[in-house]
Amino acid sequence: MQLRLLSKTDQLLVSVDKALRAIVPHSNPSTRPLPVSSDELPKLSNSEARHVAGLMRINHTGEVCAQGLYHGQAFTAKNDSVKQAMQASADEEVDHLVWCETRLDELGSHPSIFTPLWYVMSFGLGAVAGAISNEFSLGFVAETEAQVSEHLQEHIARLPKQDIRSKEILAQMDIEELHHRELALENGGAALSPTVRRTMRWLANRMKDTAYYL
Ligand SMILES: [Fe+2]
Ligand SMILES: [Fe+2]
């Protein structure tokens, strides 16, 4: 859709629609099926299912944050090149969001109760990054994707060994997050200062601590 051709009111409505789709479960049709090799659900004890749901809730929250980040960045980006460069990545993030939602459903669990708050915070961070410069904004995406990849690897290692289904979902997401990182760097993403990277990691850890339970 060419946002340039829409009136300000239409652009606002499109933004609100995207935000609601990121926040409200089951409001996004996935364009790709779950990346799993079998339809069979793994057998998990109650405590294992609770643990996997905690990890998947963190990953779902990470995807909500990705939506907020990309939407906020597009909102303030100084020209269309950043938006276009990141559009394919943003589309793949919608699939990730739906995959995590689906796995949470299968586990009889739910997304974080703070989902709207995570979205708004990430939108704000993305908007600030977009307003600073294209290079900073793309650097912010690259660093976010690198940190997401690290925690996906950690989660894959912490899953019960029989939960191949969750592992396959997270492994496919990891491949794509690293590709998003490469795209952001190829399009001019700058290296961020250690302070910014540390602050991002601190915020991500607070999110993870909370979303595992709530
Ligand atoms: Fe993602
Ligand atoms: Fe990503």
SSE map:
Blueprint: H1 8-23, H2 46-76, H3 80-106, H4 115-132, H5 134-158, H6 164-186, H7 194-213
Helix pairs in contact: 1-2, 2-3, 2-4, 2-5, 2-7, 3-6, 4-5, 5-6
The protein binds fe (ii) ion (FE2) (2 copies).
Give the domain tally. Answer: 1
Instruction: Please identify the structural class as seen in this structure.
Output: mainly alpha
CATH architecture: Up-down Bundle
The main pleated sheet reads as: none
Strand percentage lies at under 5%
User: Helix tally?
Assistant: 7
Query: pLDDT average, as an integer?
Result: 88
Q: In CATH, what is the class? A: Mainly Alpha
Task: List ligands, each type once.
Answer: fe (ii) ion
* CATH overall fold name: Ferritin
Task: Tell me the total number of β-strands.
Answer: 0
Name the CATH homologous superfamily. Ferritin, core subunit, four-helix bundle
Helix content: over 70%
- Helix-strand topology string: HHHHHHH
Radius of gyration computed on alpha carbons = 17 Å
Uncertain regions spanning at least 5 consecutive residues:
none
Give the CA-CA distance, first to last residue: 36 Å
The dominant shape is globular
Question: How does this structure look, described?
Answer:
With 214 residues, the chain is an all-alpha fold. The protein has one domain: Ferritin, core subunit, four-helix bundle (Ferritin), CATH 1.20.1260.10. The chain contains seven helices and no strands. The protein has helices spanning 8-23, 46-76, 80-106, 115-132, 134-158, 164-186, 194-213. The longest helix is centred in the N-terminal third of the chain and has 31 residues, at 46-76. The chain is globular. It starts with 7 loop residues before the first helix and ends with a helix. The model has no long low-confidence stretch (mean pLDDT 88). The structure holds fe (ii) ion (FE2) (2 copies). One fe (ii) ion binds at residues 63, 66, 93, 96, 173, 177.
